[in-house]
Amino acid sequence: MPDAPGSRIPPSKVLRREERFERLQAALGKLTPEHREVILLARIERLSFKEVGERMGRSPQAAQQLLLRALQKLKAAFGHTESLHLPDRALPREDAHEHR
User: Fold this and answer.
1) Most confident listed range (6-10, 70-74, 89-93, 96-100)
2) Using one digit for the tens of pLDDT, what is the confidence trace for 16-75?
């Protein structure tokens, strides 16, 4: 849940959010391009599994299974956290379609 506009966020909370965002970027960087793509399409762009599958040349069921595996890898690379209150920044998106 984003903070209310104009609310003062304690510097320690801002720092923790920045650190978690950097950990998330590093964890995403450890994934295969295919795993990054499925996470970005399904979780960031919020596409349906049908749309994810179409973009990745897979069935919706295969896209769903790929996402589950990718999220497991991301969780392992990211490590434990009680929350993911991240700062309002965009994750870099590699256009995997250009590399095909």
Assistant:
1) 70-74
2) 889 888 988 999 999 999 999 999 999 999 999 999 999 999 999 999 999 999 999 999
Closest CA to 67 of 87, 83, 85, 47: 47
Q: Could you tell me what percentage of the chain is helix, strand and coil, using 3-state DSSP and rounding each to the nearest 5?
A: 60, 0, 40
Q: How big is the CA angle at 60 (ends 58 and 61), to the nearest 5 degrees?
A: 100
CA distances from 90 to 40, 69, 100 (A): 11, 23, 24
CA torsion sign for 75, 25, 58, 54 is positive
